Fold this protein.
Amino acid sequence: MTVAQDLSAAGLTGNEESQAARVAREAERRDARKRWLLLLPSVIIILAAAIGPLFVMVVISFLTKGSYGWAYMPWSTDGWFSVLWEIDIFDDTVSLADAHLAVFWRSLKLSIITTGLTLLLGLPTAYFIATRPERHRDIWLFLITIPFWTNQLIRTFAVQELLRADGVFNNIMLVLRFDKIFAALGIPVQLPVQMLFTDFAIGFGMTYVFLPLMVLPIYASIEKLDFRLVEAGYDLYANKWRVFWRVILPLIKPGVIAGSILVFIPSLGAYVIPRVLGGGKNLMIGNLIELQFGQGRNWPLGAALAITLMVAVMIALLFYVRNAGGAKGGAHG
Amino acid sequence: MAEATLRDVASTASHRPDAVASAGKPFSVKHMPGFILVACIVFVLLYMPVILLVVFSFNEGESLAVWKGLSLKWYMAAAANDDIQEASLRSLFIAIIAAALSTTAATMAAIATTRVKPFRGMMPAYGLINMPLMVPEIVTAVALLITFAWVKEATQYFGIGYILAAHTAFCIPFAYLPIRARLESMDLTLERAAADLYATPWQAFRRVTLPLLWPGIMAGMMLAFVISLDDVVITEFVKSAGQETLPTYMLGQLRRSVTPEINAIATVFFILSVAMVTLFYFLNRRK
């Protein structure tokens, strides 16, 4: 109400332009201040207990490691140095840290394989759901999202049960006499097959756990797909295969990219899945980071590794924003 | 074009107009060979492990692979286990507090950032609120471990407050999303009408905005509750001695001998999560 009064008062004085503008600006500023007060609790909590500590970690990565963990002054780049290199204890020669490189390579390899497998399985599933009658789609989507919202640890544990020596997969192979098939094909594998605590187990587990993240964005793309274009493709004598590659796939590319990034990011940062299914010896970056805060007692190295991982994820996200901007989604993994 | 349309119409005319891809002989534009098979495999694969997990929680024997008969033995064992009882109560306590705090903060933030001409600092704040979604959990966990280690050393306070703070922080973006979505679908006319009828801003909020926003707030709170209840990684790194939650307890047990007792806890957990998600789904549906 006061604004209106001020405005009419401003009209009487003659220089209404500047007066009105000032009053409006004042009201706007007051509104902004109020909105900032509303934002404050969220900003403070997230700064204190989620994002702020990341900056502390950057500082830690440039300190000297203590013998029992922790990190102390003076400044040092040893932590960052040992991400890639190691110094021989006896003759001080510098060489690449093979153990770390192996872990990086495993993380990258398994993340790429997981992304590929979830795409291979997720795209047809998303297509299947998107081509159901509209009334049924919600139910199918719901079935995809249920596992997504249930505890990751429980799902990982369920996969462990599946892959055990006396688990379902081995029992099925036993019943179907796979040992005969392996022998006939000359594959030197004995039943039960050791699947748990291998890279295969980690890849399988991640594919299982992250699959919904691939299905949902691709589904969103296919649902918006104009099937008249597909029809036009058939009219121009394209076969199914050609229509899929030349018409459907280019049109749903944003969804495919979004899904791939949403799977790739949590795969790269996976910690629980390799810990449970990798059995402590098949480490991924997440486990290597944890090791530096446990037995490794090298906090600066752990901090440097964590920042490296975060930068890798940020690069992937940047790629995502560039190519599939607009599509919504988050990665919690 | 016309021919294909005719064929399409002919193939679907016998069903409802929106019926598609009946895998059969008549040519369908939407049908892709093999896709249905892959989708079936995916749904079986997605549910088989969880179903097995639930089934073996009722196993009489100790094995997780050999079925010995129906029994509630492992549920009894889990219920009688003091560690499990304590961890469950702690998990619930943390989830309830974290959900309440994060939803309150997220509601305020959502009101501040929607239905407004962007003001200075709004986009950075918006980015900050969503940022926990983009940082890998293990990175946040390690950063919190380092930071809280110093704080614990300095203050000599080792209580549950650290877990509560960490959970509240990473739950905020999850609570924020549905509340924001709900707010954006509401226009300002009703609030303006309330103001025209001499309602104070607080009255307008209390009597108009809040009731309309309520489904969004409930959805956000349930999401936050489930996310907090499920968290393993951050809790594992932040907790002090003797502050096991149910997920960290299970993670610890997985290293030792696994009995169907774990299946029993997992099943209860699973059912709780499904119940919450189902509720969330129906709340969101009635937009």
Q: What stands out?
A: Chain B has twelve helices and no strands. The radius of gyration of chain B is 25 Å. The CA atoms of residues 121 and 127 of chain B lie 10 Å apart. Confidence is low (pLDDT under 50) at residues 1-24 of chain B.
